[in-house]
Task: structure prediction
Amino acid sequence: MLLSYKFKNFCSFKEEVEFSLLATEDKRTDFPENYFHGTTDVLKSAVIVGENAGGKSNFIKSLQYLKKFFKDNQSVASNIEYLNDDYTKTKKNLRYCDTLQTFSLEVLIKNDIYAYDLNIDYLGIKDEKLSIKKQGTTQYTPIFILERSEEDDLLQNLVEKNFREWNLLNLKFRVTLNQNYEQLKNFLKSKPAKNDSIGLYLSKIALLDVPEAVNFINWINNTLCFEFAPYSGYESSDERLKKSDILKIITDRRFIEILKIIDSSIVEVKPDNSFPYQNTIIVRQNSERQIFERELQFDSAGLRDYFRWAIQIFKVIYENKVLFADEMDRALNPVLSDKIVSLIHGTEHQGQFIFTTHNVLHLNLRKQMKEQIYFVTKDLSTLHSELYSLADFSDIDYDSEENIYEFYLRGVLGGIIRG
Result:
C-alpha cells in the first residue's frame, strides 16, 4: 500500500509536493471502513479536487513518469518536456534550466515499510536510495545508496561545453551497500560509467535477487496502476492488461456485482476472446425473467465507459492494486462515482483508489476524513500548481453547518484558479 509520495519540479509543479495516505486523524473511530487497520493505518481512498488545467493530471502523470523508469529500465535522466513550466521562459534551453527532479515513495509491503528516493537531472541519476523499516522497528536501514560525485571537473564546467558531448562523459558514482554483496559489487564494476548506460541501480540489484529490491520493483510494476477517462487526451493505463487477464476478470462472478452498480438487471457476461471490449455479450434479465443479450459495442455509452472502470475497481478490491484514476467523473456521473467509493470503503481489501474530479459533491465529511480530501490549485501569475489537504485547514469542523463544497465554491479552500 502507498503511504506517501513526494516530488518536485514536474510540469506545473515547481515546489515540493507531498501526498500522504496515512490515517492519523483522531476521527478514525468515526470512519472505520475508510482505512486499512494494521500496525500502520493506511487510507483506502483519496479524492483530488480542482479546476480544469489546475494540475490534477500532472500530479498523476508525475508518478506514471517515475514508474516508466522501472518498467522500461532505460537510461534515466530529466526530460525537458516534463520540467516545470518555467523552462518555457528560457526557450527550452537546458543550459539555463533547473533540471533537478526529485521523487520519493514510502510503501507498505508485507508489513515492512520501504522508502525509495531518486534525484535526477539532465546528466542522469544524481542519487538513488532504497531503505527499509522492518516491522517492529522505528528506524530505516539503507539497502543501498548511489551518489554521483560532484568533484568531476567535467561536471563543474559542463555549462561551458557543447551539450552534444554530455552523454559521453564518464560520470563517477559511489555505491554503499548494507550487506556484502560481492557479486553485486563486481557486477557494478564491470559496467561502464557512461551516463547513457545507466538505468536505475535498483533494477540492477534486483537482477541479483536482492529480496528488498525485488519486492519494491514488483510493487511498482504490478501493484501501482493508472487509468484515465476516455477522450481525456492522456494515454490510458501504462500497464495494459493482457487479454487473458481481462477475460479472467470479466468472467469472475464478483465482476458481475460491480456491473450491477450501474444496472441491476445484468446477470451474466459472455466474453469475446478476441475483442473483449467490443464483442463481449451483456446479458440482462427483466422482472418477468426474460433474457436480453447485446454486444458491448452496441450497448449504452454509459455502460461501455463503466465496463472499463469496473475492471479497474475489481483490481483494487480483489487484487489489492493501488489505482490512480484521472477525471473519473468525465465518464461516470456523481451518483455512480459515490457508489464506487462506498464499495471500496465497505469491502475488506488492501487496495487503494485515488481519483481526481471536478465534482464538488465528493467534498463530504460525512463519508470521508479531511485527510482523504486534497485540492490542486494553480497561481496564474506564476503558472505553478500546488497540492494540499483539507486536513491543513484546522478551522474546518466536521460538524460545520455549512457543506465543505460551499466553502470550496466561495474560494475559501483554494482549488479554484484565480488571476
The CA atoms of residues 171 and 208 lie 23 Å apart. The chain has ten helices and 18 strands.
